[in-house]
Structure formats: structure tokens, C-alpha cells
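Blinded run. Sample ID left blank on purpose so nobody reads anything into the name before looking at the predicted structure. Input follows.
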Amino acid sequence: MKRSIARYLKGLRESASPHTVRAYARTLRDLGAYLDREDVPRPRDLTHRVLRGYLAELSGRGLKRSSIAQCLATVRSFTKWLARTDRAPADVGRALRTRSPRRPLPLHLAEDEVGRLVDVAKTPRDTALLETLYGGGLRVAECVGLDMDDLELDRGTALVRGKGARERIAPLGGGAVRALHAYIAVRPPTTDPRPVFLNQRGGRLTARSVHRIVSDCALRADVDPRITPHSLRHSFATHLLDRGADLREVQELLGHQNIATTQIYTHVSLERLKRVYETAHPRA
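Blinded prediction complete.
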């Protein structure tokens, strides 16, 4: 079994990221140890019942549902490969199921809290950064990855490179456009003129630095200290839906490939409406 796992991981390295390979390797090493204890030495000896036992053991360790779901995805990918390469007579992991992990509602800010957050930014760069994250609903990697050539401030848009090398045109909003103009006017000289957002050394700002900037502003603005740059993206989507935007339109603005990913924000809006109802209705 160890030899099959090693061959599977070798092939995976050609198509997956190093992070994914490390995660899959960790799970499959753990599976291999379990199969050794259960005396399942060869792929053709693997059964659905054995794999169900492995999942039960994972549950017994107190792992979160999301972690078990990730392990399940790894196991199913491996068993599919075993069957496809004729190392096993059938894909015994195909029918494996586990309870879907509960997806927490995304943390977001109220509209006035976004305003307070922007107001306490220390520099024109930080103001432009926060306005761009919220105004365009950008992921932090998309924001720090922006180049000057990507901006079309006359049109109020930016070319954004999202997940999976997908590109989209993101509207930025008036606040972001004004803040970017103000920042660009005082943007320091740099040996690399491409990045929009620069650090103190003149290089491209990193995602880690953006997290620190947002955390610092959150403390000074007296908003939820748990917020992250992604919370501004959550706020962007939630406020659009609150003001009547169509779910498909929000999906396109966020660059989501699957509308199911966008639907989480309808639950956020519903929770807000429930609170309004409970506060305002006389018989709530």
C-alpha cells in the first residue's frame, strides 16, 4: 500500500500545489498506518467497510467536520486513482459519505463601521487599500496583486486576477477611485513601477502586511477586532444584497465560479432581517 501511495503522490506533484500535496501526503500516511493496523497490505484488499472504519476513527479523535471532510476528499481521490490505474478492482471510496461541515456565517461589518475603519487609516496608501478591498470586493491576494496597468480609474474599474488564473473586471466605486487618485499622487518612487500598493521599501505590499493594517485600523475604529481583509469582501457582498442586488450579479462581482459559494451571503442578510424583525415587531 505504501508503494501505491508514493506513486499517487508523485503524480499529484505534477498537477497540484505544494500545499495540496503536503495535505494529501499527511492524510495518506495516516491512512497507511491505519491500514497496517487493520492488516490491509494491498490495494485490492481495500474495502468500503475498512474505509468507513477509518472515518469512524477520525471522528473518534475529535476532529472537526471540516477536517474529516478534507480527509474524505483525499481518500476518495486516492481510491479513484487506484481503480483507474487497475491497482484495485473497483473504486471502493466512491460511495463514502460524511456529514457536510457546518459553514460559519462570514464575519462582516455594518456600513457605518466600514466608514469608521476607513476614517482611521493612517496614510493615503492605507485609505486606498481599504477602499479598494471594500469598493471592489477583492480578495487580499487580488488587491496586493494589482499593477498600475490594471487600473482604469477614468472608468472606475480594475482588471483583477482571481483564483485559478481567472480574470474579471471589478468596479471600484467612487470612494476607492478618489482614494487611489490621492494615493497615486504621493506614491513614493520605486525601482519596480508595476505594483499599485507599495511597502516602505518600495516593493509590493504583502498580504501579511494588509492583515496587520486592517487589524490596527479595527482596534482604532472600535469595531470587531476579529475582522480580516476578507471581512471587507464579506461586507461588500452583504451590503449589495441588503440593498437589493441580484444574487447572480453579486456572484459575478465576486468572481465566484459556483453560485453556491455566493449563497452564504443570503443567510447573512436573512439573519440581519430576523434581528430587525425581533427588535421592531410588536409581537416578535
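Unblinding after everyone has recorded impressions. The beta strands are 151-152, 157-161, 167-171.
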